[in-house]
Design goal:
Length: 193
């Protein structure tokens, strides 16, 4: 499985995934194959959305396809925004609006614990698999840092004092939800880094 399609139009995810996958692996993007950046995501679960995107691409290309879906699950909000994380403040997928809504909803809440959860789906000629990565942490009082994407400026992983957005990509990749899911995928592929 030397050639794999990365099923995302999110440039931040592409950068992170390429940094996590082995250098010798031929990674193909959606645009290179003439596919849309915004793949279908209509499932009520992260697992369902990841599989839906990977199946969509596999059915059109016949190439092994890797897709992920990630949710920020905040304890005080009953797991929200969860599967709706990218569209929390509306269909525009505006990260700043999503963070503003989240911080507003947590304004008077003393408990700000949360987790990032990523599910990666692999759809290939010989089957379908999902792999999960989770990192616990808490939500900062205000956005901090300029790196990363999505909710990275407000998420502080357990044992750390800085947000994901304040870390280098290399440091984030030592502990992130996405890196943990990718490691499980690599173990499955027999290519542990």
């Amino acid at each position: 499985m030397d050639r794999i399609v990365l099923c995302t139009g999110n440039p931040g995810k592409v950068v992170e995934l390429k940094a996590l996958l082995p250098a010798g692996m031929d990674l193909v993007g959606l645009r290179e194959l003439g596919l849309p950046d915004d793949l279908p995501e209509t499932s009520p679960t992260l697992e369902g959305n990841a599989l839906q995107k990977a199946r969509y691409v596999f059915e059109r290309t016949g190439l092994p396809s890797v897709a992920d879906d990630t949710g920020l699950e905040v304890d005080a909000l009953g797991g929200a925004p969860g599967v709706r994380s990218a569209r929390y403040a509306g269909e525009a997928k505006d990260p700043k609006a999503n963070m503003a809504k989240l911080l507003s909803e947590l304004q008077d809440r003393p408990v700000r614990t949360a987790q990032f959860r990523t599910v990666i789906a692999l759809v290939a000629p010989d089957g379908e698999w999902t792999f999960e990565g989770v990192v616990r942490g808490h939500i900062a009082g205000a956005p901090r840092g300029t790196g990363g994407f999505g909710y990275d400026p407000v998420f502080i992983p357990e044992g750390e004092e800085v947000t994901f957005a304040e870390m280098t990509l290399d440091r984030k990749n030592t502990m992130s939800h996405r890196s943990r899911a990718v490691q499980a995928l690599l173990q499955h592929l027999g290519q542990v880094r």
